[in-house]
TrEMBL record:
This is Aminotransferase. The keyword Lipoprotein does not apply. Its cofactor is pyridoxal 5'-phosphate. One of its GO terms (molecular function) is pyridoxal phosphate binding. It comes from the Bacteria. Belongs to the class-I pyridoxal-phosphate-dependent aminotransferase family. Pfam families: Aminotran_1_2. It comes from Cognatilysobacter bugurensis.
C-alpha cells in the first residue's frame, strides 16, 4: 500500500519482548519495572472504580489531579502552572508528544531531534507532514552539541525536542546546557518539546533541569511527563503536558479528538497518591540509585563495559570485548543464544553511527531478575 510511514516497522521494544518470550530470555529490553505498584495507588484505583468514577473525565483531566500536578510542580521546580489553563492529562507521554507535535507542526515544517532519541518522535512528526532533522548527540557522553543544533536551524524550524534524563543513554542536561538552549531559542519562534518522563529518576545528587524552572523556556515549551515511570505502572498509560495557556489551548484541540480524556479511575488514584505520599517521588532517585549501583558492580564481573548513568533506568554497555556484530545482530544473538534481552541503539537514530557497539539494559527490575541476567552475562 501507499504507506504514510515507509521507514516504520514494528517497534524494537515489541520485537525484542516477543523474542524474549519465545526464547525464555531474561527481559532487560523494553523499559518497564517488574515490581509492584505502590499499594496505596492500587487501593485508590480499586476504590475509585467501586465508587463509580468510571465515566468520561473532563477533557483536560480530573481537576483534583491537575491541582496535584500543579502543587507537585511548584514543590519540585519552584514554579506553579495554572491547573485550569496549563495542565492537560493525557494517555501517557506518548499521547502528549503526538498531540503537541500535531498542535503546531504544519506540512513542510522542520523539527530538530537529537539522536539517539525515543522512537515515537519521528513518526509523530512525519504524520503531521513535518520533517525530522536529526542532530547527533556526542557518541560517548550523549551531550548535545549546541553549535550543531544552531547550524540545523532554518526558517522552517518549528520545534526542537529534548529529553532529560535521556532514553536510551541516561544522560542529563545540566545548567550550562539549559543556558545554551535559552540563548539558542532567544528571538526565534521555535517551540520546545521537553520530554521529562524520567524527571524523578536522577542520581548522585544531580538536579533535574526541567524546562519548567526557566521562564525563558516554559513560555515556548510543551513539557511532558508520565506516571508510568514514576509509579511503576507503564501499562496504565497516564501522563500529562504542561504548556502556556495559548499552547495548551492548541494542544487540547488535538487531545480532544485524539482520546478526548484518559482512564478516569487512575486519575483519581494518582491525585490521591501524589498528595498523600510525596515521599514516593522524592525517594525514587534513591530507590533506583541502589539498583543502578548494584547492577553496575555486577556488570564489572562480565566482559560488558558499563557507561555512566546519571539518570533514568537504563544502563548502556559497550560490548566490543564480546562481539564484533552490529548492535541489532548482537542483541538478537544475546537473546536467542545467551538468554538475555537487550535493546540495540540503532533504532533510536535517523542514521545509526557505523561501528557503534552499544546495547541498552533496563535495570528497573527485581534483584532476582538482575541476578539471573548477570549469571548469564558472566558466560559471555
Ligand atoms: N518518552 C520517553 C523518553 C520514554 O522512554 C517513554 C516510555 N518508554 C515515553 C516517552 C512514553 O511514555 P508513556 O509510556 O507514558 O507513553
Ligand atoms: N519506553 C519504553 C522503552 O524505551 C518502551 C515503551 C514501548 O514499548 N512503547 O523501553
Amino acid at each position: 500500500p501507499d504507506t504514510k510511514l515507509p521507514k516504520v516497522g514494528t517497534t524494537i521494544f515489541t520485537v525484542m519482548s516477543q523474542l524474549a518470550i519465545e526464547h525464555g530470555a531474561v527481559n532487560l529490553g523494553q523499559g518497564f519495572p517488574d515490581f509492584d505498584v505502590p499499594a496505596r495507588l492500587v487501593d485508590a484505583l480499586a476504590r475509585a472504580m467501586r465508587e463509580g468514577r468510571n465515566q468520561y473525565s473532563p477533557m483536560t483531566g480530573v481537576p483534583a489531579l491537575r491541582q496535584a500536578i500543579a502543587e507537585k510542580t511548584e514543590r519540585c521546580y519552584g514554579w506553579r502552572p495554572d491547573a485550569e489553563s496549563e495542565i492537560t492529562v493525557t494517555s501517557g507521554a506518548s499521547e502528549a508528544i503526538f498531540d503537541a507535535v500535531h498542535a503546531v507542526v504544519r506540512p513542510g515544517d522542520e523539527v530538530i531531534v537529537l539522536d539517539p532519541c525515543y522512537d515515537c518522535y519521528e513518526p509523530a512528526i512525519e504524520l503531521a507532514g513535518g520533517v525530522a532533522v536529526h542532530v547527533p548527540l556526542d557518541p560517548r557522553t550523549f551531550a548535545p552539541d549546541w553549535d550543531a543544533v544552531r547550524r540545523a536551524i532554518t526558517p522552517r524550524t518549528r520545534m526542537l525536542m529534548t529529553n532529560t534524563p535521556h532514553n536510551p543513554s541516561g544522560a542529563m542536561l545540566d545548567e550550562s546546557d539549559v543556558r545554551a538552549l535559552i540563548d539558542l531559542l532567544e528571538g526565534t519562534d521555535i517551540y520546545l518539546l521537553s520530554d521529562e518522563v524520567y524527571e524523578h529518576i536522577v542520581f548522585d545528587g544531580r538536579r533535574h533541569e526541567s524546562a519548567l524552572r526557566y521562564a525563558e523556556l516554559r513560555e515556548r515549551a510543551f513539557v511532558v511527563s508520565s506516571f508510568g515511570k514514576t509509579y511503576h505502572c507503564t501499562g496504565w498509560k497516564v501522563g500529562y503536558c504542561i504548556a502556556p495557556p495559548a499552547l495548551s489551548a492548541e494542544f487540547r484541540k488535538v487531545h480532544q479528538y485524539n482520546t478526548f480524556c484518559t482512564f478516569t479511575p487512575a486519575q483519581f488514584a494518582f491525585a490521591e497518591m501524589i498528595e498523600a505520599e510525596p515521599e514516593h517521588y522524592e525517594q525514587l532517585g534513591a530507590f533506583y540509585e541502589t539498583k543502578r549501583d548494584r547492577f553496575r558492580e555486577q556488570l564489572l564481573t562480565t566482559k560488558l563495559q558499563p557507561l555512566p548513568v546519571p539518570g533514568g533506568y537504563f544502563q548502556l554497555v559497550d560490548y566490543s570485548a564480546v562481539s564484533d556484530l552490529d548492535d541489532a545482530a548482537f542483541c538478537r544473538w544475546l537473546t536467542t543464544e545467551k538468554g538475555v534481552v537487550a535493546i540495540p541503539l540503532s533504532p533510536f537514530y535517523g542514521t545509526p553511527p557505523v561501528g557503534q557497539r552499544l546495547a541498552r539494559l533496563c535495570f528497573a527490575k527485581n534483584e532476582a531478575t538482575l541476578d539471573a541476567a548477570i549469571e548469564r552475562l558472566r558466560m559471555l
